[in-house]
Design brief:
The structure is a homotetramer of 337-residue chains. Chain A is an alpha/beta fold and 337 residues long. Helices cover 30% and strands 23% of the residues of chain A. Chain A contains 12 helices and 15 strands. In chain A, the strands form 2 sheets. In chain A, strands 3-4-2-1-5-6-8-7 form an 8-stranded mixed beta sheet, with helices on both faces. A 7-stranded mixed beta sheet of chain A has the order 10-11-9-12-15-14-13. In chain A, α7 (131-139) packs parallel to α12. The longest helix of chain A is centred in the middle third of the chain and has 13 residues, at 209-221.
Chain lengths: 337, 337, 337, 337
């Protein structure tokens, strides 16, 4: 069977690297084009770990050239850059999985938290790429907005309890992320000396992933929910842990509800003991655990922020969009130990 | 001026070591006795970092011998062991700062969460050693129950908001601690490979520090509060961060309330940006920060779990019990960087 | 094509886990038997990260049962236990890749550094499983002694320079290993608080891998070399870096010699900048770099201690022993970032 | 007794911060001036951990103003900037402890490895501030060149063996440093994701501290020694470990030689087990350990790179220059655990 040719645009960052790592051995996809804003280097110059694995020229990204060789493109670009590029590609008939924030929100919320939206037309048809909610829609989508890492883990933790949540009680999400989530850019907050032996909250109650979580939970529940989101930076490279605190308005067995909800999902594992980030690092799994004190609930989820929180979820979406089985080429074996 | 002679009982663990480090250069206290359950070694055998700093024999702890040489004893013993020893020392006229849980709770709560209490008489008169609440009582105490690390940081974060808290809304405390909080004992959960590049909740909603926090907050507020406490283990050695989530029942300026509440406290620093654990590690400071979303509040505190959460707070209490200024010999200079 | 059935004996440790992870998706091998000394559990109980990946009962290891279902066995057992088991399996016609030290040394050296050898007969025919030296012999072997992690990385670094080394100048090997190399066992030296923010040498000039390195280098060179080996414990989980210091007795271009030596090896990458452990972690690669100051040489190598230093090298050996291509199912994609 | 007023120039970096931390509670020195190249801030803005510890304005450094208020100045400036400033201060009668490289080397070596020297006159009289070699000279010095961290630890390790070293056998120094040694500057090599779970050599055989070590060892021994220096970057914040490899030309008991050599030194501790960096972090101690294999010697030393490798050694030098006891205000209590 001939493989489907794909492009990776924005190959210099961590999520771009992860896409390469996933696609180089994918059973149905073939990397046909790798681009960055500059181009003119070899992929092994950008990522020396790929020496002996793949030889590939990195080109200056050009939508027309991509359309000639690829049926689907992964965009691992900053927000704002992504929508300009996606618009062009879609017009040329290339399917797009966009890893940026550009197509994740309604236009109003987007423009409030990011910037003016320049591709409102495609935004209308974009599908939010969380298969546990939108599997069918993704299958038919031309454009999938791949969710952020914080929203992926938060929504998967809270989703099973949405219909039991007390509407006027605020939801609190205490999120903890590894440093790779902030990308390769040099910054005070990524300097080893500042991160090591440390932990701090950042942008508490103000992070841009907060409206994404709120919008999706409201849409899924039909309830007007208040979501209070506080991310923390952990002294680890990979991994994300969500500790969500909920108040219910009826008596349920939270553990049974959780197990029941995810019984048919291959990439969500319900755990009987508190989840940790090592057990999912390297995989597309989301592990979930719940404990309760009457109607007060602690639900915790763990994902690999670069995989389930970005690149492997993007490949899952691409699998669905191209009619392949959802699990094809998706990593399930953790790095542990 | 002659120094007051003190004993350190339980010198082999981390908090025992911290007591030695604080007292070896204290202006008013002199280490007169160092004991462990075994004795028969030199202090530098237990703690090789003390070579060239202090020469001291470690004795098999004996209350009568202690009473001969010391006016005050610090007990850095496991719970249950501590109360037997404290009882003896108090009967011999030795003041006691107990770092264990044995005198922190009312008898009922203690026996529910720990074991039978064998010194109910002294328990009645024990003072909870959090100077920001019980400064005056500590000055007159013979026996001070030094607070746990989680309760110290949690209570100091929540205390300023107690009177504004909505009584029927649960409090959620998401706590994060370095590994030294679990002591020197070998365990799966302290094995480097399990901790490094990882984070997990443990004993969620069931940790033994939870009733201590609840009791103190209820007593201080006169309100019947529900406290949901979830500790997490961080891949760091020292430090503790508390992220507490509260719902208020009136509109306040949380930041102003916080600053006002602690304006005269020397060991609490109110911060304008989210607190981190490096800035307090090595000191007796508790740093606190607050942010709010209407009546939903995020308040975060940071302490050194072994110092403000144990040993330096114990020395503060000893200072007060002996009529010295509270700040004498108390560390304020962080290890940072 | 039917897959070759294999057994993994000693599945509870880290190298056992890595074997499972490699073999679960191997193109030519199939896991037919997983054993430990106890048995009676599920593999996912031993390694919770395998939930959703493989369902497998773990049996109490029994050579006769293994021989019924498997053609080849991987022994991830402690030394001494391994040779008893290997002897039985070989007698039953099962090929063995032994990851312990039991068949790596000549009998004299073995008995000096370990214990009495109880399988001297098979020891004579055991092949040392370093493909870069013994590829042909491995292809015909019934029993392969998989090299230790320190010897693998040290030998691969020094091998290209053996014929230029000054015979009477001692070789110094400064080795640095992640904590996983010491296994899962609880110990002071694996306690997080002792490892984190720390580094120390251990068993300097006395480590048991030293005679293994010496013997192989002497055999390969025909020179009587003095090897001084000093391992250090790093505050990382995975990875090993070797810094070897050599004195040459002729003028060579060390960099050219190195490149030339490994030009046809797929699993050794010669680097132009100093190697690091992240670039090989997760793979079977050994990265090597050399710098020189006249006849004084610094040569450095990096491997994943659990893969190239144990389990993936074991699978390479199994590939060769069974007539498969050397690279089949062998990981080349690093965990980085 | 009136305190001696001192200035700290270059207060924004890590060594500047350490100087403040040491001098704020020094028994004989008083901070009279704190300067940076910009000035115009409060010290607590530069270092938030100092809130509640010291209130001090940071000024734009001006030699004349410094001379008005301070008898001695600590220069924590980059090389090149330091010598211009030192020259001015010395002309104004201010004693100088310079933490940069500007006065550490002979003029020829300096200009080869750094840049043109603009203060050759003072360079002639500068004393190298390693008290274990130059204690008497330091006492009479106006200008002390405070040694680099790598040279301090390397020289103290090798010094006791200098007269036994085989002259034509190269010395190999395998050095490992925490990230704080590279300062606060943002760089790829200090990005958390690149450092964490990693180790690499950098500038092998080419680091600028190499000529400093060579010059001092040659001068102290009168031998023409070849020093091969290879630094490695560790995933820790603080601490430095030196593993030096020597060949002797006579049979000695290396351990006895080491103990004898340092028997009267207060800040060097000879250890019977391999040294580690946690036991010296936070102190001015240098811990040393030696092992030997005949005439091949492994000697290892550990220091806090920011203290014994910079700021506390600078204060020791200032103590000596001002006639105070060497140990006054010098930290001996390690951060451990």
């Amino acid at each position: 069977m001939e493989k489907t040719k794909v492009a990776i645009i924005g190959a210099s960052g961590y999520t771009g690297l992860e896409l390469v790592k996933l696609l180089v051995s994918h059973p149905y996809f073939e990397i046909a084009y790798v681009g960055t804003s500059e181009g003119g280097v070899k992929l092994t110059n950008l990522h020396p770990s790929l020496v002996g694995v793949i030889e590939q020229d990195v080109l200056k990204s050009d939508a027309k050239e991509i359309a000639k060789v690829a049926k689907l493109a992964f965009l691992a670009l900053p927000h704002q850059a992504a929508m300009g590029f996606a618009k062009e590609l879609l017009a040329l008939g290339v399917k797009v999985v966009d890893l940026s924030a550009d197509y994740r929100l309604g236009v109003e919320a987007y423009e409030k938290h990011y910037c003016e939206h320049v591709d409102k037309e495609n935004l209308k048809h974009a599908v939010y790429g969380l298969p546990e909610i939108f599997r069918q829609e993704i299958k038919n989508a031309q454009l999938v907005a791949n969710p952020g890492c914080y929203p992926t883990a938060s929504i998967l933790a809270i989703l099973p309890f949405l219909k039991y949540i007390k509407e006027d009680a605020p939801i609190f999400i205490d999120a903890k992320s590894g440093v790779s989530g902030a990308g390769k850019k040099l910054s005070e907050s990524a300097h080893f000396v500042n991160v090591n032996e440390n932990i701090t909250a950042y942008n508490p109650l103000k992070h841009r992933h907060s409206p994404e979580i709120t919008e999706k939970l409201q849409n899924a529940s039909g309830k007007k929910l208040e979501v209070n989101f506080v991310p923390h930076l952990l002294p680890i490279t990979r991994g994300m842990l969500i500790s969500a605190y909920l108040v219910l308005d009826e008596d349920i067995d939270a553990s049974a509800v959780l197990k029941d909800f995810y019984q048919n999902e291959k990439f969500v594992r319900v755990r009987n003991t508190p989840v940790n980030v090592k057990t999912t690092a390297g995989t597309n799994f989301c592990d979930v655990f719940v404990a309760q004190n009457g109607r007060s609930v602690f639900v915790s989820s763990s994902i690999d922020n670069l995989l389930r929180g970005a690149s492997s979820q993007a490949v899952v979406n691409a699998n669905l969009m191209c009619g392949y089985e959802e699990t094809a080429g998706i990593p399930v074996i953790a790095y542990v130990p």
